[in-house]
Amino acid sequence: MEDMDRIRTALCRLAIGAQTKEVSEEYTATDDGLTLKSRKCVEKTLAPDLSAIKLLFSMNSLDSIESMTDEELNIEKEKLLKLLQEEQKT
C-alpha cells in the first residue's frame, strides 16, 4: 500500500508540473588528479504531463475520458489541478 501512495504522489507531481535542478560539472586532468573546472546549475520547469493526468483519472475510477466532452475535461482538469496543488502544499 505504501508503494501505491508513492506512485500516486509521483503521478501528482508529474500531472501538475515540476521544477528540477540539473548540475553539470566539468573537470580538468592535472598532475594532482582531477580538478573542477566549472559547475553549471540550471533549474528547469517541466510542463504538466497529460498522460499522468489521464492515469490519475483512471486510478480514481472516473468515467471514461473518451466519452467526456472537452468542456467536461477542462472542468475535471481544473478540479484535479486544484486538488493536486493543495495536496502538494501539505
What do these coordinates show?
It is a single chain. This protein is an alpha+beta fold and 90 residues long. The chain has one domain (2-89). The chain is built from three helices and two strands; from the N terminus they run αββαα. Strand 1 (18-30) and strand 2 (33-46) form a beta hairpin. Helix 1 packs across helix 2 and helix 1 crosses helix 3. The chain is elongated and about 65 Å long. The chain starts with a helix and ends with a helix. The relative contact order is 0.17. The mean pLDDT is 84.
Low-confidence stretches: none
Supply the number of helical segments: 3
* Residues in β-strands, percent: 25-35%
Oligomer: single chain
Number of strands: 2
Summing up helix and strand content along with how strands pair, one would put the structural category as alpha+beta
**Biggest sheet strand line-up:** 1-2
Provide mean pLDDT, rounded.
84
Count of discrete structural domains? 1
What is the global morphology?
elongated
